[in-house]
Design a protein that fits this description.
Rossmann fold, 6 helices
Length: about 210
């Protein structure tokens, strides 16, 4: 049984994430100190709310360095929603705040107009398709957390800001108002999902199972 630790820093939807991983056959522990994080086999960083507040909470608990050290071990890591954004170098939300610097790039606000200059709602809330990034190999998802996921599968998004990683770290995109959104990012064994796999039905559960098989 895969042993997964979920980082608890007071800003994650811990219960729904915990239940979904248990449903997929994982043994779950909640980690809120350095020792627990560094001893994890699999580590999950969920998150909801503002980027700066989340990073401040991690700093108060002295969890930033342990998370960064865990990610150097080569064990699987998954950031979910805000947790994915925190994997970046920083965010422009409410002024610039530094992130975990696990994947190069920054987080910016979703524009409130489409590419046709029509108004659109922010946050981006609801079901949206994920796609192989334009110009990349259709087999890109093989042997990743998106293995056997059909392109154009719909996932559940809730976010006002979006990560802009370097192109090579994009594993899947979505589109909102005609503009690209990084839906899944990857750096070796480190993954981030902008959507909530735990709220994305059978396809989301398949992503969790794929993560547990890494």
């Amino acid at each position: 049984m895969p042993k997964v630790k979920i980082v608890d820093y007071g800003m994650g939807n811990i219960l729904s994430v915990k239940r979904s991983f248990e449903h997929c056959g994982a043994e779950i522990d909640v980690a809120s100190d350095a020792k627990d994080i560094l001893s994890a086999d699999y580590l999950v960083l969920p998150g909801v709310g503002a980027f700066e507040n989340a990073m401040n909470e991690l700093e108060k608990l002295d969890l930033i360095y342990p998370i960064q050290q865990f990610c150097k071990k080569g064990n699987p890591f998954l950031g979910i929603c805000l947790g994915m954004q925190m994997m970046m170098d920083g965010s422009e939300e409410f002024g610039y705040s530094r992130g975990l610097s696990l994947i190069p790039g920054n987080v910016v606000k979703i524009e409130n107009t489409t590419i046709d200059n029509e108004s659109q709602k922010v946050p981006h809330v609801g079901w949206n398709e994920i796609l192989v990034p334009h110009g990349k190999d259709k087999f890109l998802w093989n042997n990743t957390i998106l293995n056997s996921i059909e392109e154009e599968s719909s996932m559940y998004f809730v976010h006002s800001y979006t990560a802009k990683p370097q192109e090579k770290f994009r594993l899947a995109d979505s589109y909102y108002g005609g503009r690209r959104i990084a839906a899944v990012i990857k750096n070796d064994h480190l993954y981030g999902c902008q959507f909530h796999p735990e709220k994305s039905g059978p396809s989301g559960l398949k992503i969790i199972r794929n993560f547990l098989e890494l």
